[in-house]
Every structure is written in structure tokens, then in C-alpha cells.
Amino acid sequence: MRFLYIAVLLIVSQSWANAAPVRIKDLANVDGVRGNDLVGYGLVVGLNGSGDSLRNSPFTEEIMAGLLERLGVNVTDEAFRPKNVAAVIVTAALPPFARTGSQIDVNVAAIGDAKSLLGGTLVMTPLNAADGEIYAVAQGSVLASGAEASGAAASVVQGVPTTGTIPSGARVEREVAFDFSQMTNLRLALRNPDFTTATRVEAAINRKLGRGVAELIDSGTITVDASVLGRVNPARLMAQIETITVEPEAAARVVIDHKSGTIVMGEDVRISRVAVSQGNLTLRVREMPVVSQPNPFAPGETVVVPRTQAEITQEPGIGFAEVSGESSLSDVVAGLNALGIRPRDMIDILKAVHAAGALHAELIVN
């Protein structure tokens, strides 16, 4: 059996000489300015018979009974088995500086055996943060991106109908206590720590705001001392800093994704002079049994005589080919392509070259 593999080789330019300038706001985060994750447990109602089966999902019955009792409906000792409700987990991200009354998007996912949330409505659900406090309340119509249909002998599902979203479905009820205006020492955290990039960020800020304002701490942190500038609003100061452009630097990397056969190589990748040989062996075994039986009315019995045919085939391969150590990625790629190998085999060769110490880059295999 033969398998067809398709691989894509992407060339990512990381050379700072040719890299486009990037704003600091796209390279770094401000220490303390972050979102918070929220989670809640709620109930979706109004489903068209596609909800949880209460026998297999007793937690749905408990939350529904609690909800009805809070609304003044006594369901004690009542045998109700509706099929239009489903227990769900509701998640959301509270953005930084979110104020009371603002609205945020929420995601809804079924946790029982509901078949679909299409057409359902989420009942008022409190959303808690890691500290256990309620920061938002979610409610609204669920937009499910999928469909499910079934019959007596077959069923079909398109997408994931048991998950959905509610745009602006939660209202913020509590603010995170954080006074940005009182900060006098701002810290910038690079998303991809690198000493060269951090040094350039420090130099760019000092060129615009004055020497001594920014100071490099490590490969991922730059501090900005707002007190050097006198009485200044930290928010206005950040508005000036985040628009400064810097040419980022990154380490040489080769990223390999085995599942999709994707190879991503940076501009700074280098390969030392190395010889590569690649080929494949194919072992094929075929069973062709022969039935032997006696002539009509002759003594004897029918037997099966095994017959096996085995062969080993070796593809021509490339023999030994030399890949010269070049100064540019285009030459390295041209040298690998000149070997006449398949993209899937190129992944194995790059791993072997890295193991031999000839690939001068960080190898990341997913």
C-alpha cells in the first residue's frame, strides 16, 4: 500500500536587515495589563428535543430544579423529563480595563449527552474568576455552528453543534482593581524574548523620550521610568511608546509539523558542509496458496499447499550527495531540492542533519 504525503516548505525571512519595522505594541505587553479568564456552569433551554437525557445527566436535573425553585416553582417529588434543556460550561475572557456595564463575548459548550445547542437560549449564568468572585453574568441566544440529523439506520453531523457562542452575551458586573494612572515604573515584556530585540527597543525608546528613560533588564524585560519625565500620565506615555517601530530579531529556527508535512525555515538557518544519502527498501510478501486434490473417484484427500513469494526492492535513491554550507537560505533550499527527494523525506533528512550537528538552528518538531 502506498501513501501520498504532501509537504509545504515555507521560507520566513528573519534577517533584521530585510525585516520590516514593527511597532512596540505588537512586540511587547505591558506588565499588569492583562485579561482574566472567566468560567460558569449554566443551562440552555428551548432546544428542539436535542437536549440532555436526564437519566444519563442527573446534574442537568439538579440545576434545572434549583433554577425553578429560585423562581418560585416547586418541583419536589415531581417526575419531569424534558428533552429541551442541556447543561453547559460557559467561558469568557475579561479584557483589561473592562468597566461595569460593558459587554463581552462568551463561548458555550455542552457537558452532557445533548445532541445540539442549535436554537437554545442560555439562562442567566454567573461567571467566576480564579479568585471565586463573580465578574460577569451571561445570558442570550446561542449561535451554534453545526447541524445534526439522524434516522432509524443512519445519522449525519456537520460541524460541532454542541458548542456555540453568544456575541456580547455577558455583562461585566465587577471591575478588576487596577489603577494604571498611579504607576511610575512601567515594565515591557517581549512576547518572544531576545537580547538583540530588547536592546533595540531600549535604544528606540531612549531616542524618542530621552536617555535614561528605558533600561534593559533581561532578554524579555525593559523598564520605563516615568518619574524621569516629571509629572506625566502613564497612559499618554504608553501611547507614545507603543507606536515606536523596531526591527525585531529572532533566533534561527526550523519548525516541522509531522501531521501536515509542513516545514518552516527562518532566513538565518545555516547548514554546514555535509554529505547526504537517502533511499528506501521495500519488502513485499505475497501468499498464493495452491489447492491440490486427487482425481475423481481416486483415493486421497484435498489439501492446501502454501506458496509464498517474497522479494526485496531497493529504490535507486540519491546515493551520496553533498550539500555545501551556504550563506543564504535560498542556496540551502536549492541544495536540498537538488537532491531530488520527496518533501516527506526532506523532514527526515533535516532531523538527521540536525543530529549530526550540521544544522545550525533550533529544531522544533510538532
From TrEMBL:
InterPro entries: Flag_FlgI
GO BP annotations listed: bacterial-type flagellum-dependent cell motility
Highest taxon of the lineage: Bacteria
Signal peptide bounds: 1-19
NCBIfam families to which the protein is assigned, alphabetical: PRK05303.1
Family according to the record: Belongs to the FlgI family.
UniProt protein name: Flagellar P-ring protein
Source species of the chain: Paracoccus lutimaris
Gene assigned in the entry: flgI
